Amino acid sequence: MWLHFAGKNILIDPGPGSLIRIFERGLEPRDLNAIVLSHRHLDHTADIASVVESATDSNKNKLDLLLAPIDAVDGDDPVVLKYTKKGFKKIEITELGKTIEYENIKIKPLIKHIHQGADTYSLQFEYNNK
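Below the sequence we write its predicted structure tokens.
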């Protein structure tokens, strides 16, 4: 899902076909500012490497932020590859009780659920306390 919010373009859960869908809708990957993953399952993350590669011109221009659960970026079987991580200025780990502040946006994890072995989060986006 491409979210234009508070002047920023945030891609949430770039599953299979996300890069194609971005182009089909007339959007430009280089306009992305951040990527958010709710959890590590491939139906929510399969295109992250392709999107980051396109959005950053092979990591020449970094995206501002990746927000993801720890098991998506680290551990035995992360879905965000080391090379892909280089495409971000900052990587934040989603945790209950931890509000992530990005520019004027607050991202609050509200619920954590273990879904088929993956840490899964619902998130609330706030701008100007709304």
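The first strand starts at residue 2 and ends at 5.
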